Structure formats: structure tokens, C-alpha cells
UniProtKB/TrEMBL annotation:
Organism: Brochothrix thermosphacta (Microbacterium thermosphactum)
Transmembrane segments: 12-29, 61-78, 84-100, 107-136, 156-175, 187-210
Keywords carried by this UniProt record: Membrane, Transmembrane, Transmembrane helix
Name this polypeptide is given: Conjugal transfer protein TraX
Top-level lineage group: Bacteria
Keyword Transmembrane attributed: yes
One Pfam family here: TraX
Length: 212
């Protein structure tokens, strides 16, 4: 398969997928919108592991993701969103990678338990996918089977919908990754997440009000 997609392009694909997903959620649209949205998290999980491998300052990388997640949670709190946002899930996943690298399996187990108990977006499935993306890089057949298996199990461990199985459709995009970072619009991606949710929520509320 041709390696044509850099990290920047993968992020754009994930953001587009995520936006379509959230439009489907807030406007109560059919499941097709949610299916398209399944592409986003596997790509974000994979890019997190690439960032973890190649960053020169893991502490700064972790704090950037974690603090962004905390800040993003504030508007979600006022929107009465019960889930911890995806950046907090990614930060938790990065801690799991640290635990694996330094063989701190107590930490890894604690993180998996936390992801299962507390309302992190994508929950236990999300952390397992991050771990799989890290450990099974370039072992694409095994990673495909693993991804499908944990997506199936997520219906029972995280109460995710059966449409989570469509997350496997993200793998061809990941397999086309060429190992290059591409353009760096670093803060755009951090700002876009809360901004697009706020805008979509306002528009959906406005549409519901006009229908009354």
C-alpha cells in the first residue's frame, strides 16, 4: 500500500470524521453520521503513539495534552456533558505507554481500571487501542485483528454501540502513513476541538428552538 499520508493529513481526516460524528450527535441524525465518525479515534490514538515515540520532551507533550483536556472540559461541564473529553483519554493512554515502556505494570493496570470505571470518552476500549497502536506498529494483520476484537468487546466493557466495529475502516488511512509529520498547525488542533463542539451545540439548540 502506498505511503502517501503524513501526520498533518491524518489529523485533518480525523477532525473531519469527528466533526461529522458530532453533527450527527447534536442534530440527532441517522447512524450513518456516527459510522463516519468511527474513523477519528483510531487515527488520534495512532498519532499519539507516534508523538510519544518521537517527541524530544515527553513531559511537555503529556502536559500539553492533559492541560488542554482540562481546559476543554470546562465548556463541556456547562453543556452538562458527562464524559471526560478525548484529550483526557489520550493523556491517560500516554501514561499507559509510559508504564509499558518502563515495565510499571501496576500503573498500566491502574490506568485500565480507571478507564473502565470512570467516564472517559471511549473508556477502556480507547486505552487498549492506544496500547495496541504502540505495541503492534507495522504488524498490520495482527493489529487489524486486535482492533476488531477490542471494538467488538467494547459493546460489553464500555457500552459502546455496535457501530464501533466500523472503526476498522480507519486502518487503511493509518497504513498509508509515511512517517512524516507534515505541516505543523499545533494549536489549531487543540483549539478546534472545543470550538467546533460549542458551535455545533449552539446551532443545534437554535434549530430546536425554531422548530418549537
Amino acid at each position: 500500500m502506498f505511503k502517501k499520508l503524513d501526520g498533518f493529513t491524518l489529523k485533518l481526516i480525523a477532525l473531519l470524521s469527528m466533526t461529522i460524528d458530532h453533527i450527527g450527535v447534536f442534530f440527532y441524525l441517522d447512524s450513518g453520521w456516527r459510522i463516519v465518525g468511527r474513523l477519528a479515534f483510531p487515527i488520534f490514538a495512532f498519532l499519539l503513539t507516534e508523538g510519544y515515540r518521537h517527541t524530544h520532551n515527553r513531559k511537555k507533550y503529556f502536559l500539553t495534552i492533559a492541560l488542554s483536556g482540562v481546559i476543554m472540559q470546562i465548556p463541556l461541564f456547562f453543556m452538562q456533558e458527562p464524559m471526560f473529553n478525548i484529550f483526557l483519554t489520550l493523556a491517560l493512554g500516554m501514561l499507559a505507554l509510559y508504564g509499558i515502556e518502563f515495565k510499571n505494570y501496576f500503573l498500566v493496570g491502574l490506568i485500565l481500571l480507571s478507564a473502565w470505571i470512570f467516564p472517559f470518552d471511549y473508556g477502556l476500549y480507547g486505552i487498549l487501542l492506544i496500547i495496541g497502536s504502540y505495541l503492534l506498529k507495522n504488524r498490520w494483520l495482527l493489529f487489524s485483528i486486535y482492533s476488531l476484537a477490542i471494538a467488538f468487546l467494547s459493546q460489553y466493557t464500555d457500552h459502546l454501540s455496535v457501530i464501533q466495529l466500523y472503526a476498522i475502516a480507519a486502518l487503511p488511512f493509518i497504513y498509508m502513513y509515511n512517517g512524516q509529520r507534515g505541516r505543523s498547525w499545533k494549536w489549531f488542533f487543540y483549539i478546534y476541538y472545543p470550538l467546533h463542539i460549542i458551535i455545533i451545540n449552539i446551532l443545534a439548540t437554535l434549530v430546536m428552538y425554531l422548530k418549537q
